[in-house]
Write a structure and sequence with these properties.
Length: 147
Amino acid sequence: MAKPSWARQEIGVQLVESAAKPVTSPLALQQDHAERFLLVPANVYCDARLLAALGARDSSAALVDSNPPPFAKDLVQNPCGPALVTRDFLLACSDRAPFVETLKQKIEAGEIDIVDAANVEDYIVSMRRRVAAALFFSAAGAEPSLS
C-alpha cells in the first residue's frame, strides 16, 4: 500500500493500533471523513475476491462463510472477518461497545447485510477454472479483534 497505484487511487488506508483497547465506532470515525469504511481485522486472512465482494456493496455488510471446507471448519469463526460499513452505521453503534461485539449483535438481529463467502463467484478468467474464494479465518492463536 506504500507505493501509489492507479488501482488504489480512491482508497485511503489507515492502520489503527488497538493493542491496548478494542476498536469502537468513535475510534473508527475519527480516523477519516469518508462515507464508507472497510474494516479488516489485522489477524484475519481473507481472499481479495471476498474484499472485492464487500466493496461492491452499496450498503453496510459483513463477511461470513456459511460453508467452509471440511478441513477448515474449526478455523472459521463467524463473524470474525471484514465488514464494509457506512458512516451512518457507525454513528448508530454504541460509543463504548467493541465494534466486533456490535457487529455480531447486528448480524444476529439481521440489522446488517451479509456477504457469504460460499456464494462469491469462483471462476477466475486468467486461470480458466473455478477456484473457491479462499475463506477467511483468524491467524492461529490470535484473538479476533478489529485493528
